[in-house]
Each structure stands twice: as C-alpha cells, then as structure tokens.
C-alpha cells in the first residue's frame, strides 16, 4: 500500500523525525518496505536512496497564466505570459496541447533557467537535463511550463500541469511545497486490514505518537426528494452480503478531476479516470471501503422505466457478465453478483459491468457501498484472475461499520467536485447488525501475558487512541470493541497484544517464563516418520518434496497402457490453477518421477525418496482417506569412482538388490525382521519379472522393483530405474512397542555353508524360512550368497548356497553340537521342500 505523507498529514500530525516514525510503524506490525521521494530530499537515516530529482525551491515555482498568444512563426507553439512572484512577468514558449490561445488564469508549474528536469535523449532514454536558454523560432526562451514527466511525477508528457486556481497557492510558491511528497510503501498484514485506508493508518500513527487525530467530517446538502422512491435493494443471503447501502446523485457533471485529486491518486498508485470514478477510488483509499458507481439511467432503462430493484445474490446457471475490462465472464453459483431485474450488473466486490459504467454522457448515478463475504470475494477474484484494490480489501475483511462513513464522504465529494444533487436519505439494508463486543480485563491479564504491568494511564491512552471505549472498574477495565475491529476475537489476550504492539515490545523488560514448560508430548506417528526419514538419509538417499496436486493424466502414465488404465476417482479442485494441478494425488510416484526426469541431465547417479500424503476418495464420506507413504528411486552408478579403479572400467550400477538392501536395512533399523519379499506381477508400474511385494505378518507394505519398460518410455526415463512405494502407516504400525536387546555373546561363533538343489520356481525366501525354523536358537544368522542354474543340475532346478552362523550365548559350541544343528536343517529341507543337499545327495 502506497501512502503519500501529505495526504496522511491531513488526518494526523506527523512527527518531524521521519526515520523514527518508519521504525515505529515497522515495530508495530506495519512494515515500511520502501520510501519514495518526489521533488523533495529525504532525511538521513531512511532505508531508501535519495530522490534522483529534487526540485530547486528558487527555480521550480507556482505561476499564474496572464495571457496566451499565438507564436508568430509556428502554428503549434504558443507564447504564455505568467506571473511567478517576480517583479516582472515572464513569457514562455510552449507547445502544450491542453491550453489554448486567449485563455488566462490557469495555474502552472514554471521551471526557470538552471533547474533540473527529466528529459529523453536521442536514444529514447530517460535522463536528467538542466534548463538552458535557447531560441525557439526566433524567440529566446529561458523557462518552461512543466509536465508531470519533467517533474518525475508520472510518465505523462502530453500536456503541462494545470492546477485548480481556486485552491492553488500564490505565484512564486516553491512547487516542492505544493506537489513535493514522500510516499511510504507499507506491507499491510491481513490481521491489520483496517489500515488499508488512510484513516485507519492515521489512527495507528496517532496511537503510536500520541499526536491528535483529525477525522474527515462529511457535510453536504440534499434535495427534498427521497431516494427510496428511486431504488429498491434486497439481499438474498445476509452471510454473503451483511450490509448494502445505495444512494442516488442526480445531474452530475462528468469530467476530469481537479489536479490535487489526480495527483494524490497517482502517488497512491492509481490511474485517474474521471471525477466520478476518481471519487470512489479516493474514498476507498481514504476510508478503506470500496465503492462503485452505476449509471442510473441505464438501470432505469433495464427496468423498463420502473424503479430499479437491486438484488445481491449468487449467480444463476448460464448467466454471463461483460465486465469493465471488456471480457465476457461465464458465471457460476460460487460468484456473488449485483443484479437487477434484467440480470447481473457487477461481480460483487471485484469488478463492475460494462453496460452500467459511468461515461461522459452519464447524468445520474447510483452509488453502491457494501460489505461482502471475504471467502466468496477471494474465490471469485481467483477464478477470473481479477485482483484489484477493491477485491484486495474485501478479501481481507471490511467491517459493516465502515460502509456509512464512506458513503457520506463520497456523497460530499460528488456534490463538491461533480456538482451532483444528492437525494435525501439512503437505502440502507442491514438485516443483522452485530452486537458490540465487551471485554473485561485487568492488570493481572497484562502481567500474565507480558510479564510486567503497564501504567494505567498508558493503557487508557492507547486503547482510547485505537477507538476502544473504556470504563474503569475497581479491578480493571470494561472495554467496548469498535465494530471496525474484526481482528479482536480472543478477548483480553487481543487487547493485551494491542497494548504491547503500541507501547513497544522493545520497551518491555526481560522476564523468564512464569510457567513451567509443559512435558513434551510423544507424537508416535510424527516421531516414526522422522526416524524413517533419518534412516533413509543415513543410507545415502536425498529427500525431495513435490506438489500434493497432480493430474489424472500423470497418474494414468503409471500404467503400461494409459488408455486402458482402470477408471479412478480423485479429489478434484473446483478451481485448479492449471490442468497439471487439478486433483489431489493418489500416489507419490508421478511427482518423484518428474524430479528424476529433471535431474537425469545433471547427474550420473540418483538416490531419492519422498515422504508424503496421498488422498483416496471414500464413497461414504465427503472427505478422502489420507495415507502416508514413502517412495524411493535409485538409478545410475552405485558409487563414485575411486582413485585406484582401473581406467575406463565400467562403474557398478544400481540393481534390484541395492534397493532390496536399503529396504532390508530400513526394516532391521525399525525392528521389523519378519518382512517378506513375495514375487508379483500385479503392480502395473513395475517390471512383472523384476519386482516384489513386501509383506509383514500377512499385511502388504507396498512394492519394489525395476520400472516397467513401457512406463519408463512414457516418462522418458531409463528402463534401469528402480522404484518402491510403501505404506508408511503400515510400517510404523508394525514396529513393536518393546524391543528385546541381548548382550553381545563373549563366545565365538561358528560358520558353515549349505548348498541345496530345489525346484527353479521355489523362492529362496521359502528355503530361508525353513532353515531358520530348523536352526532354532543356535542359528543366529542365515544369508543367501550364491545362485547357480548352470550345467550339472537336473532340468528345472537351481542351486542355492547359504552362509549359516551358529552361536550360543553361554558357552562355546562343540563340533558335535554344530553338526547336530546342521543335520537338523538338512533333514527339514529334505522333508519339507524335497531339497537335495549338494555334496551329500547330489554332486
């Protein structure tokens, strides 16, 4: 928000120390992000560079035109004689198109010889020049009537500045005293939306500085004719429109606004249009209440000559509106509209309709002032990408109490600047006026929340300056909250926060917390998730975070044949920002695959994981089921080359067993020793012969393996990419509450190998399970270390070799004990699996 200090100074006296004011505003929650100077120097100590052009006080002056004559040798030039506070008038040559021969009395800004001004060089670049005498068609010229461009006020150089003679200072006044200004750019937080009007900001300044506040008081005459005969208003839903005021102004003269008004709007970042529209914008910037003016004659014509009936309602199916920007808008039931009997005439709080806009031919206007539901306005503005000063204010919350003062202020300016005749009364529809909120609080509340008490006089001064009504009580205060303070929702705590904000947090003494810190709450799910994250990082993976929003097309590309992917329900966004972000994801893989594809060009190895939520629609609920999952991706070289590697030797690449090893290590770290890997061909995004489903106690944890070749091609990824997606909640649920830790045995272990021949289709996992069952407590480790399928074996079989480790916790095992345990394992493998022991049953 841009705040011209000359404008703010109308409502509150400003301290001389501008840097101190900027710091106090920022400390009070109104951060000053930039400071701009126009024609005047900035005081030292501000976080801003000096203005590139400072107007010389003796060379850039206010002047009054005495006469305008035709240049004798140039049709487009004029000779302008001005008085500027000197003993003798001065004649200036100008080609300004906005003055004419024979006119007089206009007030202009005169630049004298030696003044600096903005100009354009031969290459069209903006530069600063110094005014030197020169001859124009035979006439010496050593001064100039200046435009806004030359003074650095705007880019407008089509004509010279013409001030309102009735309000201009005497000739010879330095232009810096009239038009020079300093503009603050303030970042207004949503909780301080009341400061989106200069009156609200002035109240904050008055509270911070203790200086008096001067609020504008509207005063205007009205006709004897009542407005209620000329317009009717009804509200369909009071939750969407709590209050609506309509006023009618007749016989307005539409034209340019006086220069002072245009100047203020430009400094505040708005473009002047005409006096009617400019007044609505001016009052919005002053009061923080957006307004809109309709052409009343158009409303009368649309009503067939009957009294126009304005209705505030949601749009109906099929309705459209041609807005002021010339765009035809297709409306939905989510759009709140201002309508008459013929249909919508404006998007409530966002933009007016083109048919009812004020033009040069407008003679009678209807003024709208209202408050609307902030969520509705925010949705409509986002839907149509229409973000304006008005929608910004409505989307942050405008109090119904602001509507009446803003209406009265606008009516005063319409009468003053457009000579409008204001019809008596207002059509004020306010079905449910809010109740005044009353809060009782004491010094104990202040001490409890701030750690110290505040002087009673300072408490009363601050709250009174912020427009709260106070009544002292024996033990504290009874406070009535002004209706404009929509942010006061938490009683005494909010009032104490206001006191601390204005008093100054930096002035509060340091105190230790008066309360004991509460014991930390154990968050099993969050702690478990963090542990999984840490373990994966420990094993060399990097975490990525992708959008929770995806698209059905991206999810379908996880299927080898996207066009034949099964129909799937999604949680869909009502107003997606793009087709690629139109649904809530059902899998982490689309986002992870996109990250892999992006990084392939920059890396020869990737080891990534993501932990996040997926959203599964539920047929019996409006809310989806949220599942936490973890996804992994491996690709490329297993490790970076070492200095002693043979030159040009092929780098080992990640394979399925690297992925399986990471998952096994993760399971071991989480005390999940019973995870089984079962072959599967039912996971569409994995290679049917190079994948496995992870199972824990008959519960599926997910799947892991090599990407399906067709899926890899659809995503433009290498076919050697390894993927896993697991149900994190199922993993965490399987972690036992207590773990059995055993001391490291002091007695040596004994190692034996066993090689068995089994049917080729029998999974090694089944063999391992039988080995562990038969080995009992003496078998502490069993690992597969070799697979052989070559010559020397019966057809349809394979040889599996396992390394077995035997150890007792209380003594050294004898050869006899080891042999007995080993023979028991061999016997079970023969009996249960029909296996043959190599070296005994088969060569």
TrEMBL record:
SUPFAM superfamilies in the cross-refs: Anticodon-binding domain of PheRS, Class II aaRS and biotin synthetases, Nucleic acid-binding proteins, PheT/TilS domain, Putative DNA-binding domain
SMART domains named in the record: B3_4, B5, FDX-ACB
Annotated compartments: Cytoplasm
Domain called TRNA-binding: residue spans: 54-176
Listed GO CC annotations: phenylalanine-tRNA ligase complex
EC number of this enzyme: 6.1.1.20
Annotated Mg(2+) binding sites: 487, 494, 497-498
InterPro entries the UniProt entry points to: aa-tRNA-synth_II/BPL/LPL, B3/B4_tRNA-bd, DNA-bd_dom_put_sf, Fdx_antiC-bd, Fdx_antiC-bd_sf, NA-bd_OB-fold, Phe-tRNA-ligase_IIc_bsu, Phe-tRNA-ligase_IIc_bsu_bact
FDX-ACB domain span: 745-838
Keywords, sorted A to Z: Aminoacyl-tRNA synthetase, ATP-binding, Cytoplasm, Ligase, Magnesium, Metal-binding, Nucleotide-binding, Protein biosynthesis, RNA-binding, tRNA-binding
Record field: catalytic activity: tRNA(Phe) + L-phenylalanine + ATP = L-phenylalanyl-tRNA(Phe) + AMP + diphosphate + H(+)
Residues annotated as domain B5: 434-510
GO molecular function, one term: tRNA binding
Cofactor, free-text remark: Binds 2 magnesium ions per tetramer.
A single GO BP: phenylalanyl-tRNA aminoacylation
Pfam families: B3_4 (PF03483), B5 (PF03484), FDX-ACB (PF03147), tRNA_bind (PF01588), tRNA_synthFbeta (PF17759)
Cofactor(s) of this protein: Mg(2+)
Keyword Metal-binding: yes
Principal location: cytoplasm
Keyword Manganese part of the UniProt annotation: no
Oligomeric form and interacting partners: Tetramer of two alpha and two beta subunits.
Protein name: Phenylalanine--tRNA ligase beta subunit
Record gene name: pheT
